[in-house]
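Title: [Solved] APC family permease 3D structure

Original question kept below for reference.
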Amino acid sequence: MSVLTAEPDADPAGEEPPDTGERHRLTAVTGLAALSLDAMASVAYGPEAIVLVLAAAGTHGLGFTLPVTLAIAGLLAVLVASYRQVIAAFPDGGGSYAVAKRHLGARTSLVAAASLVLDYVLNVAVAVTAGVAALTSAFPELYADRLWLCLAVLVLITGVNLRGIVESAKAFIVPTVVFVGSILVLISVGLFRSAPVSTATAEGHASVLADNATTVGALLLLKAFASGCSALTGVEAIANAVPSFRTPRGKRAQHAEVALGAVLGVMLIGLSVLISRFHLQPVEGVTALAQLADASLGHNWAFYVIQFATMILLALSANTSFGGLPVLLKLLARDNYLPHVFALKADRQVHRHGVLALALVSAALLVFSGGDTNTLVPLFAIGVFVGFTIAQVGMVRHWRQAGAPRKALLNGFGGLLTGISAVVVTATKFEEGAWLIVVALPLLVLAFETVHRAYSRIGERLGLGRTPQAPHRDRSVVIVPVSSLSRLTSEALTAAASLGDEVRAVTVCYPDPEDRAALYALELGWRQWNPGVPLVRLNSEHRSLGRPIAAYVREVAVAEPATRVTVLIPETEPERWWQRILQNQRGAVVAHAVRRDTDAVICRLRFRLRFRLR
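Solution (posted by the thread starter after getting help):
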């Protein structure tokens, strides 16, 4: 009697335990580098978005920069607290999709998933174009080649992510640390300045500040709040990618989420304080962050360090999408809303198909926009607010069911704010291109539901979930297409004899004299060889190979209905990949015709060619 025992993690001899893939997963630190670049880089355009809106009200309007930023920071705190709870409640990842699926129904969860997919794809395109725009600003001679530069950056990021999320995290730790450290130094030094050290960056540039506007209305403040909320994109990425963390996954992901909220909040508030302290006024062609670096540190090497760090981090912030979207696609595939190929993992815990799909769609967007950031920005951040709102509403129901009304009130307040932001952003940017998102969102949901119905029909036909009939043996006939005598023919007939009760070789004959001569030679050689298998001649008036064989298979199936018919197609597999172009593809033609016109089983025999080395 045998006894099964569990193996220990490591034997006494000191051998290492088997690799469970944990070393290819994220820690809290590497998770922050891999999944927070989008949120971190948003400080380069979030405060500026607020300033540009408030500039319509003149100098008086700019005085509301800090209050609006504090409101956004408050919303950030609510979102971080909410997504910490989402991580704990949904350790398999998925963020707002997982929350909505459990508490708000399938249709709402698909809306959340579609909004996240759109946001992730747009984030890649916007991040890459923004980074390249910063590069072409420093080197104007590269402006004409900006599209190729965008595609090159996209290829680089895709290649790094195909090596694994841990590899991408390691590659991006240094740029993240440099950027965050530079911004914190800028803020710290600026707080001790009573006046700007330098204004050389803004000199010679036209101001966009309105001269005759002094009234600040509620609508303007709402618009500034909604525009500034673009700095919150990426906050949900960690909750979406919880399975990418090492165990204990939930705890590590929560620590990364809190660290992201703290660092992002400090940078947003600090930069807004400096904007008010230095009375910064927006000008054309110069970012607010560049003006702040100039004012705090002076127009020297430190200024250029911040500019280059910003440029690099903006380009690399696309990595947030490569960390979060493949996990979301895996969950959708697991729930039969996307092709199951997206649920497959390659080595190093990589969802390779999700990474490649994201890269291809992003490349198409880059080509569509011509590498121009302004073409894509109006489409950005709408989807993430829809996802935020759905997640908050779902967590309200979660807390009500759990009997925690205070937490439900907090999430309800956050959902109200993000819902208002979603409406305001969509309304204000509708004519600038946001209508595309309004159209794309329901189309994507429709695509998810179409895939789900297809899988449901397939499952019904396969009888998934039901006990099938007991297997039994049928009489079988194996049909082997042949065109000449060779070792491949012998191998095919040997394999066919092993598979079925009866083997028949078939060859297609054409009326041309040359083909008639080849058929005569084949039949003569067949009689001399005498393999014990009949050779059936199939006459064809047209130069067709697959149709005559498929017609013969149908005839056999009709004449012998209780017989299982198998078509074994012999093919050679070359030693080198490039030698495949030398093949005639006859096997593929036959397989396609038989698959299309019959219910026969198709078996393709691969005969591998191996050449001896001299």
